[in-house]
Design goal:
- The protein is α/β, with parallel strands linked by helices.
- It has a single domain, classed as STAS domain (Transcription Regulator spoIIAA), CATH 3.30.750.24.
- The chain is built from 5 helices and 6 strands.
- The chain has a 6-stranded mixed beta sheet, with helices on one face.
- The protein is globular, with a radius of gyration of 15 Å.
- It starts with a strand and ends with a helix.
């Protein structure tokens, strides 16, 4: 798998997040920071996550995606649109219950967005631990069946605090 990258675009309340390669916890501080800029905007019209070039997403990334979807639905009354053709990622999204939270499409969207790399954030170990904990709790909230997979990790992270 290739090293992961995240590209973003924000134009007039329309946000695009593009995952490329293998997106892992090392990028989650940057992703979380970018999501906070979305959450700070009161005029969000559309949020799109392009996974067409993604090769893999770890559970922390998926948890942040759940955070994004839950917030967009609650605060803006919109569902995040996800574009993905990778059968493995589509299966994971389905198993985790993302089909209840996102509008998932397999075709390639039309876009002329000007993408740029997400701002890199060097997070402290404690901040990373908090983000990983929050992400996994959100995955369990999204689909209680996920608790079997993540309960031990959640307990371990909570005991480290």
């Amino acid at each position: 798998m290739s090293v992961g990258r995240i590209l973003v675009s924000d134009e007039a309340g329309n946000y695009l997040i593009k995952f490329i390669g293998d997106v892992r916890v090392t990028l989650c501080g940057s992703l979380n920071r970018y999501m906070e800029t979305i959450f700070g905007n009161s005029d969000v019209k559309k949020v799109v996550v392009d996974m067409l070039e993604a090769e893999g997403l770890d559970s922390t990334t998926l948890g942040l995606m759940a955070k994004l979807g839950l917030h967009c639905r609650k605060a803006y009354s919109i569902d995040v649109q996800v574009f993905c053709q990778n059968p493995s990622i589509l299966h994971t999204l389905d198993c985790m219950g993302f089909n209840e939270l996102f509008d998932i499409f397999q075709q390639v969207p039309e876009s002329n967005a000007k993408l740029h790399s997400i701002v890199s954030v060097d997070a402290e170990v404690d901040d990373i631990r908090k983000q990983v904990l929050e992400a996994h709790k959100l995955l369990v909230q999204l689909n209680p069946e996920n608790s079997t997979e993540f309960t031990d990790l959640i307990r371990a992270l909570e005991s480290d605090q």
